[in-house]
Amino acid sequence: MNLLINAVQKYGNIQQTPKVNNTSPVLKSQKPYTFEKQHVEADIFYIADLHGKMTQMERICSISKQFDAMKSNAAKLKLASGDILLGSNPMTNKVASHFLNWIGITANALGNHEMDATPDALAATISDAKYNLLAVNVSVKPGSPMAGKIHKSKIEEYNGEKFGIIGTAPSDALERVGTRESLNDIVIDDIETTIKKVQEEVNNLKAQGINKIIVISHIGKDMDKRLAQETDGIDIILGGHTHDIYKGVKEGDNLLYSKSKEPVLLTQIGKDGEFAGILKTVFDKDGKLIKVQNNVMRSGVYTRTLPFKTAVESIIGKPEILAEIKTAPPAPKNRLISNNPHGNVIVDAMRHELGTDIAILNAGNIRGYFPEGKIDSRRINDVTPFEDKMLICELSEKQIVDAIKVGAKSFEKSDYKPGILLVSGLEYTVTDKGELKELKYLNKDGSKSNIDVNNPSETRKFSVACDDFFAYGGDNYLPVNANPDYVVKKFDVDKNVYTANYIKNLSQPLEIKEDDRIKIIKG
Q: Number of structural domains, the chain?
């Protein structure tokens, strides 16, 4: 249990934002550290949960380039923990997969958003991947386009030193995947079976003489802790899925101990490519982790360099300048439980372009914000990167109220998921305890009419612009149904197309302002 958590060496030009404490306290009973020849150093560049954010990928390419330039005798590994891809747009996913190639990632965990695309589309996306897609806890249907393309683990060797890399996929994927088609081909084990299979693969690697083992995990922070404490032989778990962030190393938080009391280090690197991480580690001759430094870099302080921007544009084309944003507030601190003026632009565009009474969009769909100044088509894709198909549905008061109440329950959850519903054509008040207090419909003449949230009508109906994720029961806002009878019209177009058209056709610069369409009050 003697693990030093202070600096291995200085980083040179690597920027550390937020600042990392490089003199973390030594654990109890720690003896002075002396580097010995049989010790093995490893530098590990890690990312997770980029969610298809291309502008952040361009910045992370710059961080990766600095990592490559670091002078060190250490082995260098570059690993990703899933959700690098997002949605079903083949161009977005092609950029994301090429990005992993560009920066030299050698293994990526199978995240839920890798499975947003159909098996055919995912197989095509990774057809020229130079990395392995890893998940020890999945089985793939024979004959599927993804058969043989997901591996349990891989071995990497540097100067005669071998590292075992094991992947895990999220057991709750059914709640998180944009299309159910992937889950018809790819079955993911529950957490108990996942832990068992990880241990079996650790044992398999150990039997091959590999004693330095890393898990690239997409099962979430709490499950990663279970995995660390209920197994033996894992040294590092590079985590994702729950969008947490660990800065530095703290015993009991992200430094835990295995069943045999060996140290296990956990990482989480946030969401949407806002951060990238670098671990500097030392292992003893038996493969035990004895020293580590966890550095977290904020990608926003790095520039999007021309070579990487050009590489992206070679795939998706040059962005179109649409309009100018005159004023815009900061992005909300927690987009899942906030009235989001940037998201409201999207939902207003949906309602306007489809001519419906109402528009509804889950808050989790919004992954960015609109800055002041010129706005181009790529920025819209950053704000709403999911490529869902748009629908017009006919929903009753009761269906709408029930869906809003599902979103309101997010206030009661530690991860605030699935998030509240953003609306256009409606106003509602909800408590910070998740109770829907009031709902109003904005009539075409500008007046407002109340909807009884305790006894909503099942016969009064509204035309509603929404996406297929919401309409077919994604995140259970509505009951799961592959062919609901309330779908009136389908469009083979995503909301970002309507948003681009809406912004482009404005007669004057856009002013994004806070409004009271969703009021959050004390419960």
A: 2
